[in-house]
Target: DUF1367 family protein
Amino acid sequence: MPEITIVRQEAVQISEQDAAVARRVIFGIVDGLGERGRSQWRRLWNRLMRLEPGEMVEIKTVQPRLGWYHRKHMAMEQAVFETQERFEDFESFRTWLKVGASFVDWYPGPKGGVIPVPRSISYANLEQGDMEQFHADAVNFLRSEHAGATLWKHLGPAQRIEMIETVLRSFGK
Model:
């Protein structure tokens, strides 16, 4: 669930004409669903416009995940896992894939360095847009020479490319 922190900038005066245009754009393009939603949407904007300079508001947004997209990604992961020769269990493979796709948070390590900790791709923790970005980053990583050499150590570079492309092609990639 992405969180956005908004801060009111120094006092800026806008004319009533500019305010009317802004309202027409804000409420004309996007509006709340139903009477209650429209009322909530207007209250939110009114509160935002009344903030004092330096005052902050945190907004949490939710964009529902598309079940078919999630299932397609999971099937792709499974297909790559089943063709590879390096990882014994699926969770180890998924952790490696997340780290390779830079889908991690960085934390201080036990010896002073930083360590990558893979983030969750559960429905509750990841919106559709972020899932699409993770998927694209994972596919790009799987196409890298490093990933190919890790997954199919005995194959040459050309065969590794052919192997991953064969798997990805079945998913329209």
